[in-house]
Design goal:
The protein has about 120 residues and is mainly β. The chain is about 0% helix and about 55% strand.
Length: about 120
Amino acid sequence: VQLVESGGGLVQPGGSLRLSCATSGFTFSSYLMGWARQVPGKGLEWVSGFYRSGSTYYADSVKGRFTISRDNAKNTLYLQMNSLKPEDTAVYYCAPLLRVGVPAFNYWGQGTQVTVSS
């Protein structure tokens, strides 16, 4: 399993970023996928994911600002983040899921750092 997150960076409050997660080593289209984030010293927060029905999950803290999407042909997961806030600062990880909040594998990529600051 390989998960390569990218697209993070430094952005001002109110700005936007689009995260990507390139995957390999498993059948991407067969798995639910999700995004989580972690701030040093704090636990992992599940930000967004797909339910088996195809509908999407968003944490209350990002609802209305973040949009998850996937391209099964490219084995890639995306997270469009708009109206970013300083509290969105974290390392963001993608993961294949058994269900929202439950990773399918005991493996994580390197993550991508998002810093929201003026």
